């Protein structure tokens, strides 16, 4: 999954909740998904940072 | 009849001549033949005067230079003119007219004025130069570009000439290790045949001139050298029009010959010619090395600049990314915040809704109405809501908060 896709999905979930279109039965499921998406995004940010550092590190 | 003997007549002639032509005369003449009787011997000349066309003799007289005079006169002439006295030269001689009973009329030479011969040679040289000038060829060979690396050299010289060996050794043994391709095109370098044989050698080179970069005409200088053969119109024309640059090194300290004047470059000796070519090749080699060094330096500089640029770019990337990362993290926080808030609100709404429904349900409960003193009238199991639905004698049930009573309508 791409970072942008993940964020887009997160926005969707938030609007669903904000516009009260989410039914109670699916709330837990949705929150779980949102939690996972946020973790995915944070990981991706962290990993990218690490990769950049290691790529730009002197080769010697 | 009176008669005289031949000897008597000859003595008369001799007496006439010595009587009417006493002392010495300075006479201008051209040498048409010349013989020297062995080493340290007498020199026998034939002097002529030609008509302006040069084909017909106007006068011709023998002349003798006795050995004692010849030894002194020869040296002085050669020192002054740089030339051997030779056939074809115009000379100014101090002579005494003599008539010998057996050998006839002759001139006895006492002295020579070398400046006259030099003047004549200079005049001839000037005439040839003027003709070449008029032909417009003097600068032709000089206008040819000298190759940057003159390594293929056609040599016009004599295999036995001292300068030829010097020239080859100088180039073959050069300390830089440059290779030269050399070939000798043999020619006479002195005497009557020089003009024709040099031109022949030049023609041979011209036929394969793409094999050569440059032509050198060289010969070593002796103590006295014959140079007049290089004051040749035909040779000069050939050199001037030659398709390759011609370098002359014909060994002389005095005035340039006509060939030197029309040559691309003129040096004094074969060794100097070799040095010239070597310096030219060395120049090119050094120029090339300089270029290589500059190129390496420029590349090095460029690489350094690029390295620095990359370095500074590389340094900015992490901090730029850090900004991006922070922004994204904030956004994720916001999303999570909005979500939890929205969920909370949703639950609050739902709870409120449930409360409202509870109240409504509560307020609709009939028990509460009965407790406040109201009652429900029921007939045949149905609630009675209109008095007209009841007749006399009907039995009704009245439901109160704490029980029921039955009544009959009357």
Structural class determined from secondary elements of chain B: alpha/beta
- Average pLDDT level of chain A: 83
Separation of termini of chain A? Answer: 35 Å
Count of all domains of chain A: 1
> Which regions of chain B contain 5 or more consecutive residues with pLDDT less than 50?
none
CATH architecture of the largest domain in chain B: 3-Layer(aba) Sandwich
Count of alpha and pi helical runs of chain B:
10
Element-level helix/strand string of chain A:
HH
Oligomer: heterodimer
CATH class of the largest domain in chain B: Alpha Beta
**Mind summarizing the main beta sheet of chain B?**
5 strands, mixed, barrel
Order of SSEs of chain B, N→C? HEEEHEEHHEHEHEHEHEHHEEEE
State the helicity of chain B in percent bands. 40-55%
How do the strands of the widest beta sheet of chain B line up side by side? 1-2-3-5-4
Number of helical elements of chain A? 2
Descriptive overview:
The complex is a heterodimer of chains A (60) and B (410). In chain A, 82% of the residues lie in helices and 0% in strands. By secondary structure, chain A is mainly alpha-helical. Chain A has one domain. In chain A, α1 (3-18) runs antiparallel to α2. Chain A is elongated. The model of chain A has no long low-confidence stretch (mean pLDDT 83). With 410 residues, chain B is an alpha/beta fold. Chain B has three domains: 6-112, OB fold (Dihydrolipoamide Acetyltransferase, E2P), CATH 2.40.50.140; 142-283, 3-Layer(aba) Sandwich (Rossmann fold); 367-408, no CATH class. Helices cover 47% and strands 22% of the residues of chain B. Chain B has ten helices and 14 strands. In chain B, the strands form three sheets. In chain B, strands 1-2-3-5-4 form a five-stranded mixed β-barrel. In chain B, β1 (24-36) and β2 (43-50) form a beta hairpin. In chain B, α5 (162-172) runs parallel beside α9 (270-363). The longest helix of chain B has 94 residues, at 270-363. Chain B is rod-shaped. The termini of chain B are far apart. The model of chain B has no long low-confidence stretch (mean pLDDT 89).
């Amino acid at each position: 999954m791409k970072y942008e896709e993940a964020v887009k999905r997160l926005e969707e979930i938030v609007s669903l909740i904000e516009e009260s279109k989410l039914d109670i039965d699916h709330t837990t499921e949705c929150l779980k998904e949102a939690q996972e998406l946020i973790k995915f995004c944070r990981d991706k940010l962290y990993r990218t940072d690490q990769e950049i550092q290691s790529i730009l590190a002197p080769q010697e | 009849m009176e008669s005289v003997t031949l000897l008597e007549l000859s003595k008369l002639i001799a007496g006439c001549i010595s009587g009417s032509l006493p002392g010495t005369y300075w006479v201008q003449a051209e040498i048409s033949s010349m013989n020297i009787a062995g080493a340290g011997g007498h020199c026998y000349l034939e002097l002529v005067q030609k008509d302006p066309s040069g084909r017909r003799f106007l006068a011709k007289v023998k002349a003798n230079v006795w050995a004692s005079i010849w030894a002194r006169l020869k040296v002085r002439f050669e020192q002054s003119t740089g030339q051997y006295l030779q056939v074809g030269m115009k000379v100014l001689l101090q002579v005494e007219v003599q008539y010998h009973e057996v050998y006839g009329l002759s001139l006895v030479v006492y002295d020579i004025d070398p400046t006259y011969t030099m003047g004549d040679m200079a005049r001839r040289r000037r005439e040839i130069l003027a003709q070449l000038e008029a032909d417009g060829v003097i600068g032709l060979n000089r206008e040819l570009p000298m190759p940057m690396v003159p390594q293929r050299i056609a040599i016009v010289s004599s295999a036995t000439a001292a300068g030829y060996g010097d020239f080859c050794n100088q180039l073959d043994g050069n300390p830089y290790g440059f290779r030269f391709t050399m070939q000798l095109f043999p020619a006479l370098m002195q005497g009557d045949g020089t003009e024709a044989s040099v031109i022949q050698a030049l023609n041979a080179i011209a036929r394969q001139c793409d094999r050569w970069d440059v032509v050198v005409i060289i010969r070593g200088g002796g103590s006295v050298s014959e140079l007049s053969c290089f004051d040749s119109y035909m040779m000069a024309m050939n050199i001037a029009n030659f398709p390759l640059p011609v370098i002359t090194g014909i060994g002389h300290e005095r005035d340039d010959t006509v060939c030197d004047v029309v040559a691309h470059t003129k040096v004094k000796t074969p060794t100097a010619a070799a040095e010239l070519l070597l310096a030219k090749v060395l120049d090119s080699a050094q120029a090339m090395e300089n270029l290589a060094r500059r190129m390496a330096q420029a590349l090095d500089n460029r690489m350094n600049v690029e390295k620095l640029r990359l370095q500074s770019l590389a340094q900015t990337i992490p901090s730029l990314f850090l900004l991006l990362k922070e922004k994204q993290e904030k956004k994720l926080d916001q999303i999570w915040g909005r979500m939890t808030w929205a969920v909370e609100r949703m639950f609050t709404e739902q709870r409120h809704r449930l409360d409202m429904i509870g109240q409504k349900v509560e307020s609709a409960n009939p028990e509460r109405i009965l407790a406040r003193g109201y009652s429900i009238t029921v007939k045949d199991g149905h609630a009675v809501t209109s008095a007209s639905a009841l007749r006399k004698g009907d039995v009704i049930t009245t439901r109160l908060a704490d029980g029921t009573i039955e009544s009959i309508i009357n």
